[in-house]
Every structure is written in C-alpha cells, then in structure tokens.
Amino acid sequence: MNINEKIHSRYMKADERTPASVRDLKQEALNLIAYETLAPSQISRWNNVSEIYRNLLDLTGVNETIAEVKDKITLLTDEQDRRDAARDNAISMVITVFGLVSIISAILQTVDYLDSRSPVMWVSFIGSLAVVLVFGIYLGMRWTRKRG
Fold it and tell me: How far does CA 67 lie from the centroid of its chain?
C-alpha cells in the first residue's frame, strides 16, 4: 500500500512537461522496498508480546510443569478407577452371596413343600419346571442363531 501511495503521489506531482519516467518510478519502488519496509515483528505489538511470553514459558519451565501435573492427574485417575472397580467387585460379590443364599432358601422351601406330598404342590412344581426349561431352550436357540 505504501508503495502504491508513493508512486501515485510522485506521478501526480510530475509536471505535464516532464512526466515521471517509468524508470524513476521503478527506482523509487525498489528504494521503498529495500529501505522503508518494516518486519512484521517491528510493527505488531502482539507478536512482541507473544515472543516474550514464549521465551518466559521456556525460561521458567512452565510447559514441563504442566506435563508433570498432567501425568500425576492421569495416575490419580487410574488409581481412582482401580478403587472404583474394586468397590464395584465387592458390591457384586455381596449381591452374588445374597443371591446364592436366596436360591438355597428357595430350594429348601420347595423341598419342604414337596415333602408334604400334596398333589397340587407336585403339579405346580412340575409345571413351573417345564416353563423354566422351555424358556431356557428358547434363549439357548436364540443365542446360537445370533452367534452363527
């Protein structure tokens, strides 16, 4: 933009009797490029600020500290996940134990009912056993179809 403005002003200042030569305009443009332009770092304050900040980060080791903190956070997260998994396993074990006790209690209660030799108890036991077996066979067939 500066080059265009200078060339335009030079061209406009020229007399009608002595117009500015193209050679002179080119020379002025070359002089402007060689001696009057500034580097972006000299123009931009933001560039200077970012360079100072970048050098301060390198000097103080902030990036290394951030990396160390990130590693420690990762270790803490892994440890927390391990403890959560251990707690979940303990809860699952308690539920499993209660489930087994419940199953054993149901079996003993069923044996007690069947020991009474009531025909209604025997018919209901055999009927429920047949329903459970049919449902189990249905689930097994469905599972093998999905895998196959």
Answer: 17
Instruction: State the DSSP code for 36.
Output: I
The domain in which residue 133 lies consists of 84-147
Total domains present in the chain: 1
Give average pLDDT by consecutive 10-residue segment, the chain, 148 residues.
64 60 68 59 66 79 83 92 93 92 86 79 85 93 86
Residue type at 19 in one-letter notation: P
> Is residue 97 assigned to a domain?
yes
Question: Is 33 domain-assigned?
Answer: no
Name the CA radius of gyration of the chain, rounded.
Answer: 45
Using an 8 Å Cβ cutoff, are 116 and 128 in contact? no
CB-count exposure of residue 110 (10 Å: 0-12, 13-18, 19+): middle
| 139 within a domain of the structure (yes/no) | yes
CA 23 to CA 10: how far, in whole Å? 13
